[in-house]
Amino acid sequence: MDNSFDVIIIGAGVTGCAIARELSRYDCSVLVIEKDEDVCCGTSKANSGLVHAGYDAKPGSLKAKMNIRGNELMTALCEELYIPFKRIGSLVVCTDEANRAGIEDLYARGITNEVPDMRILEADEVREIEPNISDDVVCALYAPTAGVICPFRLNIALGECAEQNGVEFMFDTKVTDIRRTANGWSVVTDKDTFITRAVVNAAGCHADELHNLVSDKKYHITARRGDYMLLDRSLDGFVKHIIFPQPTKMGKGILVTPTVHGNTLIGPTAVDTDDKDEAPVTADGLVKVQEGAAKNVKGLPIKQVITGFSGLRAHEDGGEFILEEAEGCPGFFDCVGIESPGLTGCPAVGEYMAEMISGKLSLKLKDTWNGICKDVVRPFELSSEDREKLIKENPEFGRIICRCETITEGEIIDSIRRPLGARSLDGVKRRTRAGMGRCQGGFCSPRVMEILSRELGLPLDEITKSGGDSKIVIGRTKDEG
């Protein structure tokens, strides 16, 4: 690999990959450096999977602008990247007449932000479309442009599309220093040193640390942990919309929503933490998730919970997206404080930052660019005739590995052999959903490990859950003989 690039992006989350995809339209060399083993390993791997309508952000803020523009771009983007996306609409529920003014304020803010087709529904209208809503409901703000998406597939597809258009990726590589040079920047990592004309800081919870290496104007990010609970797909239809409580200064509160795959998701909490890398699920957090969800939805069948998980949000002290060339640091571009609605806004952030960077570097668009990136082949999303043809040509697509999610060996092989292919159990899981069902990988994980071992040419005891030291097999109970 050449050590000199026009642009180096630090961070392969949804923001970094969105910027990489947009920059891949231009005639320039781009490298994405990621400290973890795959794309979508940090903040982007554990969130609510929502496309927000845009009524919540402060009018005129970058959060509001990126939210509205990102929402507008999402349908076409998902069609290009073969990502499931459903505009199911959201409800912000008021359960106390004394708080009705807060719903009216949100509606007014949404009008200022130019969110289309919002309405305030009265209690009987809310019950009609959501029978399991709390009996205490007074009214709700309805925003039909909100939707649900698979955050993993979005992040992965953005990265794959960037790669197919010439962007290079380096994983398991940590940036340790950034230094000014005569013509740009030197990016020092634990593997090598790279020279670049421009740096894009998209490092999530660590973005303040990288910014503070180069700029006299300092930022501070607080990692905010959120706990979630995921319910079985047998509850598909228990709620039909994204159901929010009225928001607080800590966030949008404990939501209840269908996922794009038919599960029911509840959460998140909002707990500030000093650890920017680990977000362990806590018993107290899960209790708060249940209690918060029960305030707006009745009869929630908690016995159908199949897993709990948690994630981190990168909250900058100012509470705003920072998308700019850092003060006094020409060629160093910050994407700092990208918390909710960061997933929604990522297409707009990519567009916005690529325009800024291309202008700075006088980049020209390529003559040809391919924005289409097909997903893993999914036989059970095909017609019976096409599925039979596929299995006849590739018998692996007829062998079920994950029974809960009906995932075949062919899909797992495809996920490993693809550009930026899976290298771990979690990598396969995020690309195929193998292990995301009711048994949470209890039956399929050993078989997936065998496929990874075979495809990667690694011994079984080198296969990891999520890269690094997360090995699953630590030894043999007896020697082979």
Task: Describe the fold and architecture.
It contains twelve helices and 22 strands. By secondary structure, it is α+β, with helices and mostly antiparallel strands. Among the domains are: 85-147 and 222-314, D-Amino Acid Oxidase, subunit A, domain 2 (D-Amino Acid Oxidase, Chain A, domain 2, 2-Layer Sandwich); 379-462, Arc Repressor Mutant, subunit A. Strands 1, 2, 9, 10, 11, 12, 19 and 20 form an eight-stranded mixed β-sheet that branches. Strands 13, 15, 16, 17 and 18 form a five-stranded antiparallel β-sheet that branches. The model has no long low-confidence stretch (mean pLDDT 96). The two termini are 42 Å apart. It is globular and about 65 Å long.
